Amino acid sequence: xxxxxxxxxxxxxxxxxxxxxxxxxxxxxxxxxxxxxxxxxxxxxxxxxxxxxxxxxxxxxxxxxxxxxxxxxxxxxxxxxxxxxxxxxxxxxxxxxxxxxxxxxxxxxxxxxxxxxxxxxxxxxxxxxxxxxxxxxxxxxxxxxxxxxxxxxxxxxxxxxxxxxxxxxxxxxxxxxxxxxxxxxxxxxxxxxxxxxxxxxxxxxxxxxxxxxxxxxxxxxxxxxxxxxxxxxxxxxxxxxxxxxxxxxxxxxxxxxxxxxxxxxxxxxxxxx
Length: 273
Prior knowledge:
Layout: H1 6-19, E1 22-26, H2 32-42, E2 45-47, H3 55-59, E3 64-68, H4 74-90, E4 94-97, H5 105-115, E5 121-125, H6 126-132, E6 139-140, E7 143-144, H7 152-157, E8 164-168, E9 171-176, E10 183-188, H8 200-212, H9 218-238, H10 243-256, H11 259-265, E11 267-271
């Protein structure tokens, strides 16, 4: 496996736009609408199928599946399990977004059970990745109290279960499996206003699911999603005056960013892991 580059990320965006992959999102009540809008703006599509009757069947026909632990209850927890099983059985890539893991025992146990089902990719903040790996607990609600770079050892350890893992922050740290051992990259840039608008992280998880449907490797799909967000959010910040206008400008920017924009503006560097 080769390291993702700005060129390969740009080609993956072109593939996303050419195919319009359908994502099944099992996400939280706070983020459902924004996740859908982000996917539509970026060039994908979304179906919010999170009931136990349909979760497994839809995972078999979706291009990618997002399982987000933001607001779980008994019903959605059952649907999470069924969707993960359905995705694995059908060969559908799926993403685990372990929101709030570490601070709350029930959801932490739920995440541990889902981890056993071999997610294709895991996307979280630094604290969530560290807690999911069982290497500490610095989660503050759904926010991170750890630097994303501090989560790299935890992310590498999670490659025993997942094919690629990212820890989000001012710099995103992304690692993946290869035949020669773990390899990684960083994606820098982006806007601090991302942290002032709800569901930007959750929608990144949905975007990862979309990119996994078209990328040649999970590491490339995960990197492409992060790079798309970084470049689009910088453009949105330039065209906004605060969090409210940023949210609108961000959707516009996700749609307007081109493969050539990613080729010239994405800041991707190799990471020693």
